[in-house]
Every structure is written in structure tokens, then in C-alpha cells.
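Entry 14: structure prediction run for Orotidine 5'-phosphate decarboxylase. Input pasted below.
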Amino acid sequence: MTDRNTPATGGDGFAGRYRAAVAERGRLCAGIDPHPSLLEQWGLPVSVDGLRSFAQSCVAGLGPTAAVIKPQVAFFEAFGSAGFAVLEETIAGCRAAGALVLADAKRGDIGSTMAAYAAAWLEPAAPLCSDAVTVSPYLGFGALDPAVTLARTTGRGVFVLARTSNPDGTELQTAQVARTRTVAQSVVDAAAAVNADGSGTAGVVVGATREHGLDLSALAGPILSPGLGAQGASAADVAAVFADTADPAWLLPAASRAILAAGPGAADLAAAASTVRDQIEAALS
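Run finished. Output C-alpha cells:
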């Protein structure tokens, strides 16, 4: 069993751990999104007990199957301290099964507050410690330094929002910085500078549902690409949108509802995840 203090997959830095995971299990980030409607769809109560049953099925089905598992923190947080307790169990269970865990918390702040967020998700002794966490750079990329530094030190990662799939993000993310590049491109470039040491510490989040207009060639880190399945993108769409990616091994398509709809059986979840993964690998080959 993997201890929460120990990275779940071997290799030097987050780059090595990520590469090892996708080489063994394929390029898929499987989401755990215990939305109330999904709990009801599975015949579970919208309660902490229902949340725990949902999460346990996901751990059993996805933990041994997916390279990366992404719990959506908000759906656990909605149940207060009891929900966070279930999230702790979920993170530990997925990592014990050999998956990397990306906590989808989208944290972003400044100074000591950002340092506290970093410690909560990336400090090995923390109850919620994960292999990586999503972060928002829109208080300035430099404000993420505490998370970047801790992630590099502990062999973990941060996934920085760059060009997201929601339409409301377009105006901000495509705005020009000094009339030379978009805000989203500046985020990618800053992440690439972090990764210049070969650590792969800084991934970026770039949606798969539309053309992104980004130059990702120098990133040298993972590209989390949500939008597969319920949001409308197919594996073929992912391949087309990211056709110019310098190293496709860094591409990590994400699917949640398309997999979770197969529940509540753990075997059915594992089969659905395997099907989506195989579609991704065929499209990106």
C-alpha cells in the first residue's frame, strides 16, 4: 500500500512519475464528480453516506485502471467536514491503488494564504496531500510561487488554468498582453519557464472543446484537457485540437460523466474507463 507521504509512482520529479503512470496505464484522467444528480442516478442518498458509497465504488473501479484520477473537490466540500473526510479516504484509496491523484481544487491567492493552500494539497504530511492540484494564475502567475516551490521540492505538480473550456473564460484568456500574446499564452510560457529544469512541475489546463490558439511546444509538462464526453469533445476532437503538440505523451484528456454514467458497479466503471482510454490512445497514435 502506498503511504500518503510517498509519491504513488516512481521517477525523478513529477515528470518522471507522470510519464511512468501514462506509460503503464494510458492517457486518461478520470474524474470523480459526486454531483447530487449522479448520486441519485446511482440510487444513492444525497448525504455523506451516499457520498462515501459513491467514492468507494470509484476508488474500486478507477483506482487500479486510470493513470490519473481527478476528484472534484467542490462536491466533497459541499458536505462540510464529513465530506472532506470522505475526500481524504478517496485520495488515499486511489493512490494506494497506484493512480496519481490530481485534486481539482482550483486554488489561487497570494502570500501566506497561497502557501497555506499549497501545504494543504501538496505537503506530504497533510491529510489531503495529492500528487498534484489545479491552481488559478489570475492573481498573477508569480502568486503561485509557494505552490510551485513546494511541488518541485516534493516531486508533485500543479496544473495551471490557461485556456479553459467554459465560454465565459474567453474574453479574459484571449486578451492581449502588451499586444504580443494572449493572457493564456503568457500562462503557458510561465509554466514552460518553471519546467526548464526538466521537472515537469507545472502542467496547464487547456480545454478540448475548441481550438485553443496556443503554442505548447516549449511547455515540457502535462496538458490536462477537459471536455471529453459529456462536454461534447470526442477522442478524435482531442487529436485534432492538439495536433501540433510537440510531445503527445504530455497530453492528458479528462473525462468524468462519460465514465461515471456507467456506475455504480466498480467493474462497470473500470470497463468504461478502459473504453475511453483505448479510444484516446487510438486517436492519438
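Notes: The domain at 13-284 is CATH 3.20.20.70 (TIM Barrel). Will compare against the previous run tomorrow.
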